[in-house]
Amino acid sequence: TFRSSHLHVILNGDFSGCGHCKKTKPEFIEAAAKFRDDPKVEFAAVDCTIQQALCNANDVKGYPTLKYYSYYTKNTRVYNGGRTADDFVRFMLEPERLSNNKPPPAPENVSWFSDSTILHLTDRNFTQTVKKHKVMLVMFYAPWCGHCKRMKPHYIEAAKDLASQGYEQCMAMVDCTENPEVTEEYDISGFPTVKLFKNGKFVADYKGKRTPEDIKSFVLRHFSKDEL
């Protein structure tokens, strides 16, 4: 098969109507050109509007989804790195090192989400932290994600409103580019993904509007269920 004939394959699952896919495409093509003469590396793309069965088999849920496959180690993982040509090239030069080595823990005070009402979770502290809280809403994001940047101020405002009502530190975030273990455990393939946990257990995905009031109401409803 195609994958078994190459040691390293990065697969881009996309569809033609996706704006992020259109932005990623030229960078992906530029990176692929760097490996044109390398028989061990291949870049590939799949149009999920046509190859639905293939995309379903590879658990593609958001667009674009990029996955790395290694024939040699049988390693498969979602690629959550940057989407420039340089990012793709850097990853494919040392995919196994970047796939298997846990990155250093992110600092607790992260400028992307520096507000003290938001907890910053990592591979190292995620499980322990969510278990300590009756209700916790977690936003899984990538720093380069435009939708995440637009949601950020609304998410922070909701957290501040909740804190002012006595519901402190019930909202958190995870940088998926720095924390691959949590990202893989909760099958995060699109950004932002927002999940609610109660006493450490996943309860529901947040699918509502990304306004402060809607986010806050969603969290309060789950607190209210416990208080009844």
Intertermini distance: 57 Å
Most strands sheet:
5 strands, mixed
Question: Topology as H/E string?
Answer: EHEHEEHHEHEHEHEEH
Our Rg estimate from Cα atoms comes to 19 Å
Percent of residues in beta strands = 15-25%
Helix content: 25-40%
The count of strands amounts to 9
CATH architecture of the largest domain: 3-Layer(aba) Sandwich
Q: What's the CATH superfamily of the largest domain, by name?
A: Glutaredoxin
Return the domain count.
Answer: 2
- Give the class from helix and strand content and strand pairing: alpha/beta
Sequence of strands across the biggest β-sheet: 5-7-6-8-9
Structure annotation, total helices: 8
Query: Looking at the chains present, what oligomeric state does this protein adopt?
Result: single chain
Kindly identify the CATH topology of the largest domain. Glutaredoxin
Average pLDDT: 82
- For the record, what CATH class of the largest domain applies? Alpha Beta
Shape assignment? elongated
- Low-confidence region ranges: 1-5, 100-110
Family: Belongs to the protein disulfide isomerase family.
Protein name: Thioredoxin domain-containing protein
Keywords: Disulfide bond, Redox-active center, Repeat, Signal
Pfam family, one: Thioredoxin
